[in-house]
């Protein structure tokens, strides 16, 4: 029995050593895969200037510089772009793209981000949005309805709502599931030696409580027109 325990311990140590060695080899020899979004390479870096379009349909947009909190939080080779798209009636949608470099921690879980900013997740859905690209395909997205309370000038608190939509995309791969993204990233790395460059794409719009569906339809219209302008085509499934 004692010999069996030693054999099992030795086998476990060898497995750990082998796994550690494989991971070390991958880190040293891995190559970065191609991103699934369009951008202009930054000289001397793996970073890219992400090409979010300036005008989409009747929306105009304002470029938003990377916030200081993001500069301190993300790995240095993270690429970031943000625009606020505004319709003629003043309705606005925030569009954000975060592209990883060689460090996957650029891509985070929204379950941590939104509640950390004071938002409560009220409802989650996974939906398809038709994208008229070449070829056309169904984009699978996560849609959340969220709420928070804001203090008004009279000291009273008012509940407001927002719609949050997001998905992850790499070269020919797309999912709204963070765990699935990590699974595919790992499998691609072990199978091909390439670290796929995943991007986290998200949209956010405020709305009155009870009008979330109306806000989502307007967001869906923007996404349908905007995505073919900066996301590379996906193969229909």
Number of strands: 12
Helix count, DSSP H or I runs of 4 or more residues: 5
**Multimeric state:** single chain
**Class per helix and strand makeup:** alpha+beta
Can you characterise this structure?
Helix content is 32%, strand content 35%. The protein is globular and about 60 Å long. It has 2 domains: 1-32; 33-230, no CATH class. A hairpin with a 5-residue loop joins strand 8 and strand 9. It has 5 helices and 12 strands. The chain has helices at residues 2-29, 68-73, 110-116, 178-192, 212-230, and strands at residues 31-32, 39-41, 48-50, 60-63, 79-86, 92-99, 120-131, 137-151, 157-170, 173-175, 194-195, 199-207.
What's this model, at a glance?
This protein has 237 residues and is α+β, with helices and mostly antiparallel strands. The chain contains five helices and twelve strands.
Feature tags:
237 residues, alpha+beta, 2 domains, eight-stranded antiparallel sheet, two-stranded parallel sheet, 5 helices, 12 strands, 32% helix, globular
Write the layout of secondary structure elements.
Layout: H1 2-29, E1 31-32, E2 39-41, E3 48-50, E4 60-63, H2 68-73, E5 79-86, E6 92-99, H3 110-116, E7 120-131, E8 137-151, E9 157-170, E10 173-175, H4 178-192, E11 194-195, E12 199-207, H5 212-230
Parallel strand pairs: 1-11
Antiparallel strand pairs: 2-3, 4-5, 5-6, 6-12, 7-8, 8-9, 9-10, 9-12
